[in-house]
Structures are given as structure tokens and as C-alpha cells.
Specification:
seven-stranded mixed sheet, globular
């Protein structure tokens, strides 16, 4: 065999599935070309190709439908990373699932060697070559039946939607996948899993949809037509491991890279935030495109026209050749290229694609606006509206929780204007009941404290749908962990690990973590729950929770500084919560009895001079407790003198 043929066989291949078999982004993008949807003003597919190119991969096979192949080819030609790739396109109009794509690849005999398989919506930087070498070494040395290594990203929050719904059991020494289950809540594990070996049970892993495959994977799909998804494949191999003689392994991305899959609007938000916060470096706006970076993660494109009174808040990206009027406020938002924004416009926590026009005095919150849309004056678009391309919203229009099309292609839409049709999911018998039609709003919760809410006037505003600062995100995740921990009786050691993971993920310093953990413990009730409680029942419930979380309290409150943080958090929450205000002295006394707060810290807090009337009133309420503490201290000193 010639040297050139050997080298050709040894070249690492990657297969990119560029057609998505879902409508999660519709009507902003359809499944066939959703890989071209912009994320931070750059097509998703470009991130994927850049990641492959930076990993040293040369040969790339792109699968797409015949209807979208021309658009995808044109986009790939403009991608900087694709210039050094040998890209081959393969199409099929009969593929309806991920499994069909693998069977198509097997029929075309395009796979020559071990290959990387991923969707065209993966963003990040991964050292893929070492993973492939490790996979090859594994098959050659210890496990010839290994057919796939699944790449997972460790999540700082196990309640993340894509992490909380799966449990994975791995062999501790090899990383071999022994058990996989996609179910929320409690699960049953086979006893034999833990009897004969040491295992790691993981519920903190996010599937990146990047896998390293052997050449045996496409034939396995071809031989088993019930394998329609990757989960079907994993489940089938685990159940029939001895029959198929195939094994699976996992690799967890921790400090050696980043990978995030964009498969719905919540993940779109999460990955957008990670790009703006530079977790994906060097795939960040000012490196891959012509942007300048300003303080607060504000990215400014070229040739902008900004009015002097236009305010750009934190976590904002503004595309090139855009115009902004006076007294306009934009924050936590991505604005596309060639956009025109009028005067007195407010845009928050939203995504505007290229060529959008927003006229004066309009408001857009928590929404997506497709390409070349026009929002006329005095319009209000909020609460997860998704507008397809070319939509025109007439003046003085209010839209909430709607998907808007520019034409009635489905004959199932309500006409709002000549170029605005509201899609009617209730009358669509073909719609997926499990599909999240709320778009950006994927979790709603009423909060008794508004400091981390997306809207001070909306009790049901979606905290998770907003993109607040890191401290607020940390607080929100701690609340989620504590609620789940108390309701499901999760061991406090595990809760401490979750909280610490969130602390490191959001770069929260130790004292701020102390403050936010106590704050979270005191705000676990919704507003509706608080309204149904009287003072006695409220304190009884709060006391029960504090007792349950005693190990968590002892982990964070153990110095004078941390005691000060604890008392500050109690006082801070009591300002906005009347029930806590009525029992604040009891709470402080209870924490003293639990040996969380020291006598010295309470006395120091009470003696601290405060300017606000509220702080003075709280300290007056605590006078009897302070007298009791001083009397107890004097009695202790007297007893010590007598004994001496």
C-alpha cells in the first residue's frame, strides 16, 4: 500500500449534522437551516467549524437537506475557519432523524477511520485530537469493543435543564458508561452496578452532543432501525452490551476546554452569555469579527451612529453599521448588523437579528426579533415573543408570549396586520405538546424579593429567562439548590458541593457567597406561599428549614466576618419581607442557639451605628436579646471568678 493511501486513511474526519430535526427555533429559523441562525451575530455553524479547525481536523463531512445545501455552502465559504478545511457535503431528503443520518453515512461509505460526530450548533474550544488518540489507544490496548466516547460538559448547576434530567453512572477507574437514564427526580439503580466495582454517579453533566466514534457506529445504526437518536443508541448498547459486544465511554470537560450545544432558547441564552463572558475564548466577538470590547462586556461594532444620550448597559453586543437614537437604553441584548433603533427605545434581555428597525418609544423585553423586521412606534413586545423574518408590527401594538410570522403559510394563524400573523398553537393538531412555545421564558417563579427579578412590577417575571449579573445568577442557583434539597431531602454535603460549584462558576468571593447563601435560605417561599402564612406558621417553617440546613450554615458561617455577613443578609431581607421583620430577633436568637452566630458578633452588630430608621428599629427590637446575652456573659464571668 502506498504512503499516500496510508496517510489518507489516517486523516481524522469529522461529521457535522447541519440539519436539526426539530422546530425549537421556529419561526426565527427552521430546522433545515437553523445552523445558520446567528449567535452573537455569527452563524452557529461557523463556531462549530472553527472548533474543528483549531483542533487540527482537516476532513469535514457536512450533512444537510437538499433544500438548504446552497445556503449552507455559501455560508461555509464565508467562514474563516473553513478555509483550511476540506469540506464535503452529503444530502438526503429521506432522513427524518439522527439515526437516519448515520444510516445514510453507512450507505455512502464515507467514513474511513475513527471520526468526530457533532451537530452544527456546538460552540466552544475542545482539544479533540487528544480525545481521539485516547480513544484509539483504549481500543487497541484494553477494550476492543469500545465504539464511542461521549463528551460531557460539567455544569455548575445540576438543576440546569439539560443536566437535571439525566443520570449517568461511570466506572471510576475507566470512565466507562454503565448506566444512563433521562428522568427527573428519583431513579432506581441496578444493585449489581455498585456491588462489584467503584462507580461515579453523575447528575451534573450536560451533553455537548460531541462524540468520538469508531467505524463500527454507522453499521450499528444500519443494523438497528429502532436507533433514531443518540439516546436510543446509548440505551440499546447498554441493554444489549453482551449481544452487540460494544461499549461506551465518557469524557468530562472540566478545565481543559468548553463546549456548549445550542438546541433551544434556554441553551441559546446560556451559550450567548458564555460567549460574551469569554468562556469560549478565542471564539469571542473582537477576535472573530471587528468589534471593540468595553467595560461590562459591551462589544461595539464598526461604523456605528450612537446618540450622545444612548445608554448601552452590561452584556450588550451591537453589530456594525447600526444607528441608535437619543434616550435609548439597551442592556443584556444582542443587536445585529444594519439595525436602526429610534429615540426613547428600551431593549432588554433580547436578541435582534440583522436589518431590524425599531421606531420611537417602543419596548422589547425577553424576545427574539428575526431578520429585517420592523417594529413601529409605541409598540411593546415582551415575555418571550419570537418574530420570524420580515415581520412588520404596526404602531401601538402590545404582544406577549406569541410567535409571529410575516405570512400565513400554515393557514393556522391569526392576522394582526398585513405582515404579522400570530401562530395559533391551540388549533394546530400537528404541534408537539412538549414543545416550549414560551420561547425564552423556560422557568417562572414568583419572588418575594425583587432585587434579582427581571421586572420589579411583575411578580411572575421569569428570573431564569433574564441574564442578570453573576451575583444574581449565583443567588438564583443557590435558591434552586436549597429548594430541591429541602423537598427531596438531599444530603447537605451534596448541596455544599453544588453551591461551591456555582460560586466558582460565577467567580463569587467568599464573603459575598456567605451573604447570598443566607439570603437564599430566607427567601425559599413564593409570594403566594407567604400570603397564606401567619407569623407563627412562618417562623415554624423557617426554623425547620434552618435546622435542616445546619451543615450548610456551619460550612459558610464560621468566622467573625462570616457572622457579620449573615446578620447583614438577615437585615437586608427583612427590609422587604414583613413576616421576617416580625420574627427577626427570634431568627437571630435561634442561630445563636445553633452555635452559628457568636455572642460577640451579635453584640458587635447591635452596637454598629446605622443611619437608616429601619436599622435603628431592628436594633431596638433586639434590645432584650442583647440584655440577656450580656447578663449571661456576666454570670459566666462570675462563675469563673468563684471557681478560681
Amino acid at each position: 500500500m502506498s504512503t499516500s493511501k496510508v496517510q489518507k486513511q489516517d486523516v481524522l474526519q469529522a461529521v457535522v449534522v447541519a440539519s436539526f430535526f426539530h422546530k425549537n427555533f421556529w419561526p426565527a429559523a427552521d430546522g433545515d437551516s437553523a445552523c445558520l441562525m446567528p449567535l452573537v451575530n455569527r452563524p452557529l455553524l461557523h463556531y462549530t467549524l472553527d472548533m474543528l479547525e483549531s483542533s487540527g481536523i482537516v476532513d469535514v463531512i457536512v450533512f444537510c437537506s437538499s433544500g438548504s445545501v446552497d445556503r449552507i455552502k455559501a455560508s461555509v465559504q464565508r467562514a474563516a475557519g473553513a478555509r483550511r478545511l476540506n469540506v464535503v457535503y452529503t444530502t438526503s431528503d429521506t432522513c427524518r432523524s439522527f439515526g437516519d443520518v448515520l444510516r445514510h453515512l453507512d450507505a455512502c461509505a464515507l467514513i474511513r477511520n475513527d471520526f468526530v460526530l457533532l451537530w452544527g450548533n456546538v460552540v466552544g474550544q475542545l482539544p479533540l485530537l487528544p480525545l481521539v488518540k485516547r480513544f484509539k489507544s483504549l481500543r487497541q490496548s484494553s477494550d476492543r469493543g469500545a465504539v464511542m466516547t461521549i463528551v460531557y460538559q460539567q455544569s455548575g448547576d445540576p438543576n440546569t435543564s439539560s443536566a437535571a434530567d439525566q443520570t449517568i453512572v461511570l466506572a471510576a477507574d475507566t470512565g466507562r458508561v454503565l448506566f444512563h437514564n433521562r428522568a427527573r427526580g428519583k431513579i432506581s439503580l441496578p444493585l449489581e452496578l455498585v456491588l462489584n466495582s467503584t462507580v461515579n454517579i453523575r447528575r451534573d453533566l450536560i451533553d455537548t452532543n460531541v462524540v468520538i466514534c469508531s467505524t463500527a457506529v454507522p453499521p450499528l445504526f444500519a443494523d438497528n432501525f429502532d436507533f433514531q437518536t443518540k439516546d436510543d443508541f446509548v440505551k440499546g448498547l447498554l441493554i444489549n452490551e453482551e449481544i452487540l459486544n460494544s461499549t461506551l465511554y465518557a469524557h468530562v470537560v472540566d478545565g481543559d476546554g468548553y463546549a456548549g450545544e445550542v438546541f433551544d432558547w434556554p441553551s441559546y441564552q446560556r451559550v450567548t452569555r458564555d460567549v460574551m463572558h469569554r468562556w469560549t475564548y478565542p471564539q469571542v466577538p473582537e477576535v472573530v469579527d471587528k468589534y471593540s470590547l468595553r467595560y461590562g462586556n459591551v462589544y461595539i461594532g464598526e461604523n456605528l451612529k450612537l446618540a450622545l444620550t444612548c445608554n448601552l448597559g452590561n452584556d450588550t453586543v451591537v453589530g456594525s453599521d447600526s444607528r441608535f437614537g437619543s434616550s435609548t437604553h439597551i442592556s443584556n441584548t444582542v443587536i445585529g448588523k444594519n439595525c436602526t433603533i429610534g429615540n426613547n427605545v428600551t431593549i432588554e434581555n433580547s436578541y435582534l437579528f440583522n436589518g431590524v428597525t425599531v421606531n420611537d418609544k417602543s419596548v422589547i423585553r425577553f424576545s427574539v426579533v428575526g431578520e429585517n423586521c420592523t417594529i413601529k412606534e409605541n409598540s411593546n413586545i415582551s415575555d418571550s415573543c419570537i418574530l420570524g423574518s420580515g415581520v412588520m408590527i404596526e404602531p401601538n401594538t402590545n404582544l406577549k408570549l406569541m410567535r409571529i410570522l410575516s405570512s400565513d403559510l400554515t393557514n393556522k394563524s391569526k392576522k394582526l396586520s398585513a405582515k404579522a400573523y400570530a401562530y395559533d398553537t391551540e388549533n394546530d393538531s400537528d404541534s408537539d405538546d412538549d414543545q416550549d412555545v414560551r420561547g425564552l421564558t423556560f422557568r417562572k417563579r414568583s419572588w418575594s424579593i425583587n432585587s434579582c427579578s427581571s421586572s420589579d412590577n411583575d411578580d411572575t417575571a421569569s428570573v431564569a429567562a433574564s441574564i442578570p449579573d453573576d451575583t444574581c445568577m449565583f443567588y438564583s442557583e443557590v435558591v434552586d439548590s436549597l429548594i430541591r434539597g429541602f423537598e427531596d431531602h438531599v444530603h447537605c454535603d451534596n448541596l455544599i458541593l453544588e453551591i461551591n460549584s456555582s460560586r466558582y462558576a460565577y467567580n463569587i468571593n467568599y464573603r459575598e457567597a456567605n451573604f447570598q447563601v443566607i439570603r437564599a435560605m430566607l427567601t425559599l417561599n413564593t409570594k403566594a406561599e407567604l400570603e397564606a402564612l401567619n407569623q407563627v406558621r412562618y417562623y415554624a417553617q423557617l426554623q425547620s428549614k434552618l435546622d435542616y440546613f445546619l451543615p450548610v450554615l456551619k460550612n459558610y458561617i464560621k468566622t467573625m466576618d462570616s457572622c457579620e455577613d449573615c446578620l447583614s443578609a438577615i437585615e437586608d431581607i427583612a427590609k422587604g419581607e414583613e413576616l421576617l421583620n416580625t420574627v427577626i430577633v427570634k431568627v437571630i436568637h435561634h442561630l445563636y442557639n445553633m452555635n452559628i452566630l457568636s455572642e460577640e458578633s451579635i453584640l458587635k452588630w447591635h452596637e454598629k451605628e446605622e443611619d437608616t430608621q429601619f436599622a435603628k428599629t431592628i436594633r431596638e427590637k433586639a434590645n432584650k436579646l442583647i440584655e440577656w446575652l450580656k447578663d449571661a456573659e456576666e454570670e459566666t464571668d462570675s462563675d469563673e471568678d468563684d471557681s478560681s
